[in-house]
């Protein structure tokens, strides 16, 4: 009688990270974008660069055309606000699920439950390459610990999300990643797990992973010094001054750098796009009042506002509208950024 893989339908071999990287190679321009962005973010985290790190983009990427369209708009905007904001595009290719649902472009690139992960990895790397060649740095959330081997050479900032922040595997992975990492508070809003993750991710770790040839390996890391806390709300929002002061006090108690990014979406806006501007303005006001520990903001933003359900009829999908969480529109995104630039310029440059 069979005693192993009893409930496994089949196993399909993956392309190796090295093969995919050779197929879709980093260009000189893409390398320059990634290296410059990582160094700039390091400087923001060290407060050598006074600008605010802004991670903005769709809740998830599901359409190549819309992703490049958004990146083109962002490229035109970045130069106009470069003295105040350092903008990185949110390019989330994986989505964690509490139960079931679409798990992102990598897992199901054709939105039809065929789960062609090989093509999903290929499509994700292609999109990231195109955006980086435009000079736009990219940000993502790593859900599967294998994914970074395929995509990390095109990623300038990454997150460990609220559903995986307690995971030993993800803390170990963060300790070896080459880019700065934002660690989100837990889904209930507490920051204890994220604070513990800060300590773990900064420390050397040894764990099981894969190498560029797809071989299962022992991965020994040196620790990642560029991890920082991201507040995304929980049972209640935690972007307000009291919540941020409390988080800074905990960071101080643990002898960690007092650095905070605020996610204007998720439970800080109760997952309603119309509340993101309120969160944004509150945090901008705190920064303008002198709290330079607020080093970053995150927006869930798309070409058009709101979201739509994935029904299986792709022809019915509206262009530039999220199929996961609600997003603010591009128009609102521009308005918020320009409005805040006028407020912040004197304080940041002074």
Describe the overall structure.
It is built from 10 helices and 10 strands. The chain is an alpha/beta fold and 350 residues long. It has a domain at 22-262: Aldolase class I (TIM Barrel, Alpha-Beta Barrel). The strands form 2 sheets. Strands 1-2-3-4-5-8-9-10 form an 8-stranded parallel barrel, surrounded by 8 helices. A two-stranded antiparallel sheet has the order 6-7. Helix 8 (241-253) links the parallel strand 8 (227-231) and strand 9 (260-263). Helix 2 packs across helix 4 (117-133) and helix 6 crosses helix 7. The longest helix is centred in the C-terminal third of the chain and has 20 residues, at 330-349. It is globular. The model has no long low-confidence stretch (mean pLDDT 96).
What key phrases describe this protein's structure?
single chain; alpha/beta; two-stranded antiparallel sheet; 350 residues; 10 strands; 10 helices; TIM Barrel
Short structural summary:
This protein has 350 residues and is α/β, with parallel strands linked by helices. The chain has a domain at 22-262: Alpha-Beta Barrel (TIM Barrel), CATH 3.20.20.
Percent of sequence in beta strands? 5-15%
CATH class membership of the domain at 22-262 = Alpha Beta
Number of strands: 10
Shape summary = globular
Distance between the termini: 74 Å
Write the layout of secondary structure elements.
Elements: H1 17-23, H2 28-45, E1 52-57, H3 64-78, E2 85-90, H4 117-133, E3 138-141, H5 148-151, E4 157-160, H6 168-176, E5 181-184, H7 192-202, E6 206-210, E7 216-220, E8 227-231, H8 241-253, E9 260-263, H9 276-288, E10 294-300, H10 330-349
Parallel strand pairs: 1-2, 1-10, 2-3, 3-4, 4-5, 5-8, 8-9, 9-10
Antiparallel strand pairs: 6-7
Helix pairs in contact: 2-4, 3-4, 6-7, 9-10
């Amino acid at each position: 009688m069979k005693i192993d893989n009893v409930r496994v339908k089949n196993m399909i071999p993956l392309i190796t990270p090295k093969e995919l990287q050779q197929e879709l190679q980093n260009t000189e321009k893409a390398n320059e974008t990634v290296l410059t962005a990582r160094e700039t973010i390091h400087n923001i985290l060290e407060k050598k660069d006074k600008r605010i790190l802004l991670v903005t983009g769709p809740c998830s990427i599901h359409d190549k055309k819309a992703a490049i369209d958004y990146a083109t708009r962002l490229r035109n905007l970045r130069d106009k606000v470069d003295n105040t904001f350092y903008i990185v595009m949110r390019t989330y290719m994986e989505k964690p699920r509490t139960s079931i649902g679409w798990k992102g472009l990598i897992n199901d690139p054709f939105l039809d439950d065929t789960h062609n992960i090989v093509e999903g990895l290929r499509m994700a790397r292609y999109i990231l390459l195109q955006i980086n060649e435009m000079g736009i740095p990219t940000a993502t959330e790593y859900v599967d610990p294998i994914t970074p081997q395929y995509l990390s050479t095109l990623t300038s900032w990454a997150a460990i999300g609220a559903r995986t922040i307690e995971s030993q595997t993800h803390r170990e992975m963060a300790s070896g990643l080459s880019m700065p990492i934002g660690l989100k508070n837990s889904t209930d809003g507490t920051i204890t797990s994220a604070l513990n993750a800060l300590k773990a991710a900064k420390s050397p770790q040894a764990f099981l992973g894969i190498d560029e040839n797809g071989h299962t390996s022992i991965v020994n890391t040196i620790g990642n010094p560029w991890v920082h806390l991201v507040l995304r709300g929980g049972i209640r929002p935690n972007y307000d001054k009291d919540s941020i002061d409390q988080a800074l006090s905990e960071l101080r108690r643990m002898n960690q750098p007092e650095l905070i990014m605020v996610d204007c979406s998720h439970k800080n806006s109760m997952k309603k796009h119309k509340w993101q501007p309120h969160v944004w303005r509150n945090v901008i006001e705190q920064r303008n009042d002198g709290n330079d520990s607020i080093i970053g903001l995150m927006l869930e933003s798309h070409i058009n506002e709101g979201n739509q359900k994935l029904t299986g009829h792709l022809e019915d999908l509206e262009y530039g509208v999220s199929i996961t969480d609600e997003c603010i529109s591009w128009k609102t995104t521009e308005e918020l950024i320009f409005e805040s630039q006028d407020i912040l310029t004197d304080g940041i440059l002074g």
